[in-house]
Amino acid sequence: MPDLQAIVDEIHEKLQPRLGEGKAADYIPQLAHVDPKKFGIAVIDVDGQTYKAGDADVPFSIQSVSKVFTLTLALGKHGETTWNRVGREPSGSAFNSIVQLEHEEGKPRNPFINAGAIAVSDLVLAGHTPREAIGEIVRFVRYLADDDTIAIDPEVAKSEHATGYRNFALANFMRSFNKLTHPVEHVLGVYFHHCALAMTCTQLARSGLFLAASGRNPLTGHTVVSRQRARRINALMLTCGHYDGSGDFAYRVGLPGKSGVGGGILAVAPGKASVAVWSPGLNNHGNSLLGSLALEMLAHRTGWSVFGP
Ligand code: GLU
């Protein structure tokens, strides 16, 4: 095993002069007001050892990274029938694009673009009130991270709702094609709340560890999903986890990952480690600029890649 603490320290050090690069999301005040110079990284290997640097224990808005957890929950509830409602192909268009949805008659391309995650929220909602579904998601993430302090930031959820015109458009559009089974307000209530989960890099890396360890969380011993399902979620993260920057991320980093507009990225090195990075400045695809760079450096220094030794 490479000296992971030395590597994360070196990445943190090397990125110091570049902190603040990129453009932080500003569609809601809670994201616009985050210090753009924040940077955190946490790596947890499959033996449960943690290596971290920078602001790894400062909570941030995980936004779309939460889509990995809601997909895992939906697959647990609905199994393969999940794929009747949402596809598994990269979208090649922006995270909140509506154009493709029209062509494809309300069936979103994949679970990680907004429309797809809204369809997944509809699946998680089955048999629940919105409040219960939100509670189930929070409990699931706490169980994954083995940390009961993880919570939703209610102010972020409120702002997402107040400014979510495009998400309302996407959801109404799907509903018009009979592709949502619950009222739009309920589905988006669930969606906005899971996007508003606040977590630290350390908590996020812990939550993703089951994906690096064949479906079993080595910290708790719990089997979260089967080995095959862990592989499949990783495949979707690789092909669809970075919106229309997914190809570039695969090329540069070579690991499955899911980003969020809060500047967080969860990446998985199967059989090796789970990694979370956070830096609020985004590149022009809406993915963390320095976060992607940190992961590229980590992959380079460790030799981790799903494409070869
Ligand atoms: N809540 C955000 C939205 O739906 C999530 C976007 C993201 O992280 O990509 O606009």
CATH topology of the largest domain: Beta-lactamase
The end-to-end distance, rounded to whole angstroms, is 14 Å
Number of domains: 2
Order of strands side by side in the largest beta sheet? 2-1-8-7-6
What is the name of the CATH superfamily of the largest domain?
Answer: DD-peptidase/beta-lactamase superfamily
CA radius of gyration is 18 Å
**DSSP strand tally:** 8
Describe the largest sheet: 5 strands, antiparallel
Q: What CATH architecture label of the largest domain applies?
A: 3-Layer(aba) Sandwich
CATH class of the largest domain: Alpha Beta
Textual characterization of the structure:
Helix 1 packs antiparallel against helix 13. The chain has helices at 4-15, 29-32, 66-78, 99-103, 114-124, 130-145, 154-163, 165-176, 184-195, 201-212, 227-240, 246-252, 289-302; strands spanning 40-45, 50-54, 60-61, 151-152, 197-199, 257-259, 264-269, 273-278. A hairpin with a 4-residue loop joins strand 6 and strand 7 (264-269). The model has no long low-confidence stretch (mean pLDDT 96). With 309 residues, it is an alpha+beta fold. It has 13 helices and 8 strands. It is globular and about 55 Å long. The chain has 2 domains: 4-62 and 199-301, DD-peptidase/beta-lactamase superfamily (Beta-lactamase); 64-197, Beta-lactamase (3-Layer(aba) Sandwich), CATH 3.40.710.10. Residues 63-64, 95-96, 114, 160, 167, 195, 260-261 line the site of glutamic acid. Glutamic acid (GLU) is lined by residues 63-64, 95-96, 114, 160, 167, 195, 260-261.
